Predict the 3D structure of the following.
Amino acid sequence: MALPFYQKSHQHYDLSYRNKDLRTTMSHYQQDKKRSAIYTHGSTAYTSRSSAAHRQESEAFSQVAASSKQQASHYSFGAEVSRKSASAYDYGYSHGLTGSSLLLEDYSSNLSPKTKRAKRSLLSGEEKENLPSDYMVPIYSGRQVHVSGITDTEEERIKEAAAYIAQRNLLASEEGIRTSKQLTASKRSAVSKQATSTLKQEETFKKKSREATIREKADLLSLRKTVEETQAYHGKLNEDHLLHAPEFIIKPRSHTVWEKDNVILHCSVAGWPEPRVTWYKNQVPINVQANPGKYIIESRYGMHTLEITACDFEDTAQYRASAMNVKGELSAYASVVVKRYKGELDELRFRAGAASRPLSFAVTPYGYASKFEIHFDDKFDVSFGREGETMSLGCRVVITPEIKHFQPEIQWFRNGAPVSPSKWVQTQWSGDRATLTFSHLNKEDEGLYAIRVRMGEYAEQYSAYVFVRDADAEIEGAPAAPLDVASLEANKDYIIVSWKQPAVDGGSPILGYFIDKCEVGTDSWSQCNDTPVKFARFPVTGLIEGRSYVFRVRAVNKNGIGLPSRVSEPVAALDPAEKARLKSRPSAPWTGQIIVTEEEPSAGIVPGPPTDLSVTEATRSYVVLSWKPPGQRGHEGIAYFVEKCDAGTENWQRVNTELPVKSPRFALFDLAEAKSYRFRVRCCNSAGVGEPSEATEVTVVGDRLDLPAAPGKVIPSRNTDTSVVVSWEEPRDAEELVGYYIEASAVGSGVWEPCNNNPVQGARFTCHGLTTGQSYIFRVRAVNAAGLSDFSQDSEAIEVKAAIAAPSAPCDITCLESFRDSMVLGWKKPDESGGAEITGYYVSYREVAGGVPGPWREANVKALSEEAYKISNLKENMVYQFQVAAVNIAGLGAPSAVSQGFRCEEWTIAVPGPPHSLRYSEVRKSSLVLQWKPPVHSGRTPVTGYFVDLKEAKAKDDQWRGLNKAAVKNTYLKVQDLQEGVSYVFRVRAVNQVGVGKPSDLAGPVVAETRPGTKEVVVSVDDDGVISLNFECDQMTPKSEFTWSKDYVRTEDSPRLEVESKGNKTKITFKEPGMEDLGLYSCDVTDTDGIASSYLIDEDELKRLLALSQEHKFPTVAAKSELAVEILEKGQVRFWMQAEKLSGNAKVNYIFNEKEIFEGPKYKMHVDRSTGLIEMFMEKLQDEDEGTYTFQIQDGKATGHSTLVLIGDVYKKLQKEAEFQRQEWIRKQGPHFAEYLSWEVTGECNVLLKCKVANIKKETNIVWYKDEREISVDEKHDFKDGICTLLITEFSKKDAGFYEVILKDDRGKDKSRLKLVDEAFQELMAEVCRKIALSASDLKIQSTAEGIRLYSFVTYYLDDLKVNWSHNGTGIKYTDRVKSGVTGEQIWLQISEPTPNDKGKYIMELSDGKTGHQKMVDLSGQAYEEAYAEFQRLKQAAIAEKNRARVLGGLPDVVTIQEGKALSLTCSVWGDPGPEVSWLKNERLLASDDHCSLRFEAGPSDVTVSVFIPEEEARTAEPRKGAPQGAPKSK
């Protein structure tokens, strides 16, 4: 069957995720070899089935088949082939075969072709709508679509995927469908005859036809291929966005039960992959095996239950259900309270009354209890952070009554939405403290954070706002980072990314935004748009289908590009239908029955036109189209072509010319802004391209969403001393409004600062972080996707101060002393003053007779100023209750809680009463100061001291510990060595001679911590020497005041001190500091949360301050550098010094030899008061200038001086240096040498003489001399680079001498001289030799007729270069056999007649007289053998050449004779052995006869041969012209 055209041009939908091995799987299927160890098991399982393993598998499969009917198996198959595949599959996993090891037998037979009907898509029409054109439709479909969750391990994940895909592929074939029907029929009889049916199935399996066997083999190979494809697909496909973290659909609910009852906790969890649920009791996992029968844990159909049987008191605890998968962990909590019977009431009565109890009461393990009281201590306040920083929000949770093993449910919210733990934020509960930690703050984290604590039926919450400021811009003036980057829509072709505009534009309007993308799993970011987009939405194209991406956005203005936003959550480029299919879960377990619906073939159907085409979004940058697939489409995937045309024309142009669109949505770019278009869409498949859809209405390219209008009237109102509530009128007809940005400006500053960096909803916002007492104006602007609106009109100015309210109620009323008819009461101040100073208190009392309280009566008419009051005219032995209310200018506050009953009777106790009015201040991380007032009742004797006790706030009463062993006489104590972050309470007991009295009421709890912004008292000494203590407070209210104390006694009327306060600053000044002023000075700020600080002045500190005061009274001008002198370029002399600082009125006097000198022709003076630099210049030094120089400074009251002595040798040396510099300056007015003559050895071992010249021109001449003789230079010097050179090649001793170079023109001349003799010459020669040695080539081996030669080449050779040869570390002694020499540039060592003793390492050392440079060669092994063999060959050739027969001489080249004369030719020949000699005449052999006589005469070293031709013969001969008549030939 021919492939459709779009499948020819495009790869399979998941082909990009396959590696090379997977693409060639089909060819591997047809190879006849064993793939894995399971081959043996597979062949046995599918052929004989005679082993024990076969019987076990058959039994196992029978059980699986039976259980599938009971809805217990998810992977039972409906055919014989399905059964065998599942058996082999289970067998492989039971033997530890996973992943790619799960391979079945590989047969050599080819795959049997499937029928056309079997290849048809069985997907429903709804599932097909979003399939791409190149998507190969899966052949499996049924009523139950089962996609297993991805488990924790890769093995389980592959197993589930393989089972599902095998199930899909096998059942799609005709054989699978047929056997499925057979299995359905056989199931009806399998209920009663299970064992018999199993044997018959095995018999039927053995008797299968060859066709069925081949079909099974092909299906097994298809299963194997599917497993490999699934592995590759999951390896490539990023699942980050397809998966999602666990989410509790139904959370477990808290229960209250009676003893011996059962309780069941339910929860339902969603997540992909399927989360694993674990139950905990008080954070300890529940072990069912350790407590058999106690706990029953079940998970069925997504519902998870924990049943606790026969509950007892120990089961009262907090239970947690923890759901975990690869995307994270989520927990849900529930509390179980088991009630214990008390009294004689029977069980039925308790059970009957349980349902009728009021909800205002909770049940504790001790029976009925009042409601839980939840308090927040050490609470987090309004917080300010910056992007990139870390921040923690926390508070201590106090719950009363406290029940052991019963923990509250803690929840965090941001702007009303629950906060889930993530990589950005983590939650922690330590048992009594809840913490929310931000590991990396972003503007998305800004908002109102609330902590909600639930205990049984009761809950409390506390909230505060968190502000996140922008991080510092990398480019000054660049805009801040956008925020809330997310994906609005995702499909195969594009993903629409949205974001929110930042509040800060960097001072210039934002021109647009750049969107960046990054594929999950990589660190490579790429920019998606070339030009900035202003609309806060953008479709990103060019994505790979199935891959997951994250995005970020950067804003740009004229100053540059700002920082990127926080990255978005991962999103996959998949159609929503595909995502839903992957995330879907079955509603019930697999039943084992699959119903497959077949339809008639519909090949060749051209798809119809799409419907409902519309423009869903249009901006100036892009247009998004959406449509529905056609009803007439066939069973194969379809694709789309999008066309456009200008409005008013019918000139349609195809937009996506290269690739068809796979999804029924498309984003168009590159459209002309403000131009009108129409659009239409066509469908296509293998049959062709269908008719176009109906065209859209005319669409104008531009932003459909308009900018919102500016908000209306802005009204600020007071809130606290650091915050203002701002409200405004919302703009009308604002579409898709994101929120509002609020800005504040201090009146008169002209600088606007953002109050929020995350747009807020609603028309009201509280602006925090303002300065108390400062006046501000506010403005607001609205935000939507189109951008930011104009600013609203500025609000009216408002001063930041707390809104005034009535004070809160006082607390802790106690009886300080009692008489027969009167009582003295004490109480604590209210926690909140209402923003105004508390002006007094009103006390009420009532009689309590017989437990029945009477009416309230006023105890005082005039407000009380102290927290204690004596009430008179009471009845003796009557019990009274009291209430106290505080008052300020706003009115009377709420009364306190009713006190306990106090009996009015005469106290006769001898010990003192309790101290009262305890307060703590100066709270730091390890210390605080506790103060109190003496008891009203002192006992029989006066109070002699006090004991202070403390304990942790949560500790029991038996854990009090004393802080002082001996009683302190003061009414204060500084508590040290506290643990940071721990909450403490304190009490004080007074003591007299009789004993220790009752303890006071508790002070606290207070947490030992140094709060942010805490400041300390600072001591300072001003310019007049006045000593003062200074303190500053940034958290004052309009009614706050500073109170100074010495040893915690007010110092208002002290004659030795003077107090001055202004704004948020105060100081106390010592008039005449002395020993009487020693002590601990403290400053308290009223109407604040205990802000205070102290400073101790002891004897050592007083001495230090007095010395510093003396220095300030009589100051000196500090010198940064003392008086110094230096010589300038022209020989001028500069005297200078530098003071630390000088004011504008500073004066300087210049003294020489005790006489003041002034500015004139000889002296030039200068003072730079900004830098403190003082200078004096002289043109030149003369003999009369020798002496002492002094600079005297007067700067206000401060004085200073510095002196320099210039006499004797010091002055003469300075004078000489000045004259030299003067002459140098004169020399440099003409051509001169900037760098004098020097030498350099080049890489070619030549000597280069060079100098650097300056101030030259074209007419400047340069002349070189050696030994006062001019050197002729061929080249003309080019002064462009200012360097003049003279090159001396092959430098040697003859080049030694004095070199000189002269520069001259009409302005003057200069010369430079270089000495190259004696030591200078030796130094140069050593450098030349070093360069020559470095130029030596590696040693090489050369064989000659005489022996072996080792040699190396150098640039050139000098006699000064020392050459040493060594053999195996020993110097070579030169002999006739071993010689060393130099031939040209070759340095050699000749070894004549080499022997095996000559083997080894040879080193040639070249020495320049200082250092040696070595070259080494190894003449051994193969190198020696080859050299020696070559030597033997050359030696034999030389000998043969030497002994070769040859004519030595004597025979003339040309002989001229007269005709008729006799001819005699004679020559000498040599050869060993003796040669044979032949004469040739005209190239013919000449024989001895009567006409020609040949003679041989042997000498001592050679042989003489001759030929004689008589006259007669000579006349008849015809000799050659220009050649002898005959020539000998020797052999």
